[in-house]
Design a protein that fits this description.
Elements (H helix, E strand, L loop, with lengths): L1 H22 L16 H6 L1 H15 L5 E2 L9 H16 L4 E7 L6 H21 L7 E7 L9 H4 L1 E7 L1 H8 L1
Parallel strand pairs: 2-3
Antiparallel strand pairs: 1-4, 2-4
Length: 176
């Protein structure tokens, strides 16, 4: 048991140090003050050598923390609405990006109920993003119900909607 805790602590420390190193980069984020129209200009000037860094910037800017829900709820809090507004802005600035919203629940309830609740949560996030101007065809939803817990010891952290992103280059490569 002590070995497991030590290993978990080490992995957590490594993960956090990796996140800390990443946050030091100077890539633009959705909250940057630079206008969106000026972002493509450097890419056009250095299209060959900067293509990878532009994709990295786009994927980094589209990272989003999960949206957490109360027990038996698919209601967004005002804080979640603010975060989704920033995500919608980032998606509107990147027309080639696609997002999948996955709904999750804790283990309370039946499998069927949890799958339906996870779907309602994912649908709620999708509906809100569409209301904020993101094209509906760019957002897919699915429900895992209780099948993919984020934290076995915390039911609150399992009641969530998570995001995964695909850039236009990834979508084209996957279609081949």
């Amino acid at each position: 048991m002590n070995l497991n805790r030590s290993l978990l602590s080490l992995l957590l420390a490594l993960g956090l140090s990796g996140c800390a190193a990443k946050s030091v980069t100077t890539h633009p984020t959705p909250s940057s003050t630079a206008p969106a129209a000026s972002a493509p200009a450097p890419a056009a000037a250095n299209a060959g050598k900067d293509a990878r860094s532009n994709a990295d910037e786009e994927s980094e800017a589209l990272a989003a923390a999960p949206v957490y829900f109360s027990l038996d709820s698919a209601t967004l809090t005002p804080e979640d609405q603010d975060r989704l507004e920033r995500l919608a802005q980032a998606l509107r600035q990147r027309p080639g990006a696609r997002v999948t919203v996955s709904g999750h629940t804790c283990e309370l309830g039946t499998t069927e109920y949890n799958l339906a609740l996870g779907q309602r949560r994912a649908d709620m996030v999708r509906t809100y993003l569409v209301r904020l101007g993101v094209e509906p065809q760019r957002i897919s939803v699915l429900s895992y119900g209780e099948e993919r817990p984020a934290d076995e010891g915390s039911v609150e952290r399992n009641r969530r909607a998570e995001f995964s992103f695909r850039l236009s280059e990834q979508a084209r490569a996957g279609a081949r």
